[in-house]
Amino acid sequence: MQLIRSHSADFIIAIKNDFIMDLYFLRKEKFINLLKEVVSKPDLFLTVVNRWEGNSIRVNRGKILEISDYVRLDFSFLRQSILKDLDEFEVKISQLLVSYINEQNKEIYKQKIFQELDTIINLLDKNMENLI
Question: 82, 124 in Cβ contact below 8 A?
């Protein structure tokens, strides 16, 4: 993994999936230099710039990523942490609350919400020493 030098980035590109986030930091000087390199040759220019209209420029992401500083953040360790359970709890509670609001038989969803709350509180109590 390459560490970022202490400079400010003018562009930050984040590409992520569930547990991995790739960050690309690009200074405007590098971007301008790339454009200067390719502007004199139309075929080369079109490998970088897809469209340029007014103040808007559409570029080939791959070319930009090649000249950027790169950092990968791997959050896969969260799969085995209590944060995974908290995330699942949030999803379940949100779904149950929507159902509670939209459905006629509110008592069923109220009971399910309390069951989920009880489950997550028990899980927190069981893992309290690992949380502190």
Answer: yes
